[in-house]
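dude i think i finally got it to work??
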Amino acid sequence: MGHMAQWMRKIYAPGLKFHIVSDSTFYGLPFGVTAVESQEYIRSLQANVERSGTR
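look at this
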């Protein structure tokens, strides 16, 4: 995705942004992930988005 965004910037100056949505609370249980781990994962994703300024 990073390469695609760089390539796109060559023909469209603003470029692209990708937002990945993960439903870890739904799919975690079959993989042995606890609800606490899922919630922490979601919090870490939100923090990464906020730090990157791409909200």
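Residues 1-53 form one domain.
im so relieved honestly
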